[in-house]
Amino acid sequence: MCREFGELSLKSPSVPKRTKRTKRLVQQVKQHLLRNKKKKSARKLAKSLNVSRTTIRRVIRDDLGLKSYVKRVASKLTDTQKQKRFSFGIWARKNVRKSLVRKILFLDEKRFDIDDVYDRQNDRIYAPNREQADENGGIFRKTKFPQGVMVWLGVCYDGVTCPVIIENGTINHQKYIDKILPITLEDGQKLMGNEFTFQEDGAPAHKDHHTQTWCKDHFWDFWPKSRWPPNSPDLNPLDYSIWHELCEQMN
């Protein structure tokens, strides 16, 4: 070019014309992802539109600016449950102070199975092929009816109570009164003194009138069955934190 014209005339490389990621394809993907009730995976969507999965991923990420999120499981509440939770929130905002929070003993029961805890989203095995992945622990085997035990635990600002393990059967009101409530009272007094508030949820053994009478006669203060809102695991530290930590450490 120098010899022929005496100068260099450089141009930026031409961008190849899109043959697959057209405006029509972007609109089709957008309509499917945002409007259609019946959802498809990126692989099935690519197959139905006769394009590669890489093209579909680029359309979703670059052209539409969307990200993929896993559905989270939450409680399905009725209108009555929503109203009770709202009423509890109003009551707690007016009456619960920091000094009271440090004097509440929360309790909960959880069944622990002998099968390990499996997280479908995060428990991954990296291997060159499926066969090698299976050999390296890529198969999670779960029994149809796993054995397990029911564990009761109480927790407060100053620590946790002794756990109570119920090996056979479920917890009815008689077992609850005979085996759990005395330990609750004793350990609660060791942790916080005689003046503390006892919390329990709406389990059948907790709501029984015999249980309510026992709590009224022995605890300095407790929240009756009408106080704690139904279907509310996000209010109890055992449900939203401590049980998960114990499951992570289980063997």
Beta-strand portion reads 5-15%
The appropriate CATH architecture of the largest domain is: 2-Layer Sandwich
Tally of DSSP helical segments: 11
SSE order in H/E notation?
HHHHHHEHEEEHEHHEH
The top level CATH class name of the largest domain: Alpha Beta
InterPro entries: HTH_11, LisH, RNaseH_sf, WH-like_DNA-bd_sf
GO molecular function: nucleic acid binding
Protein name: Helix-turn-helix type 11 domain-containing protein
Domain Helix-turn-helix type: 28-61
What do you see in this structure?
Residues 28-61 form the Helix-turn-helix type domain. This is Helix-turn-helix type 11 domain-containing protein. One of its GO terms (molecular function) is nucleic acid binding. Pfam families: HTH_11. The protein is α/β, with parallel strands linked by helices and 251 residues long. The protein has helices at 2-5, 23-34, 42-49, 53-63, 79-95, 98-101, 130-135, 173-192, 204-207, 209-218, 237-249; strands at residues 104-113, 148-156, 159-160, 164-166, 197-198, 221-222. Strands 1, 2, 3, 4, 5 and 6 form a six-stranded mixed sheet that branches.
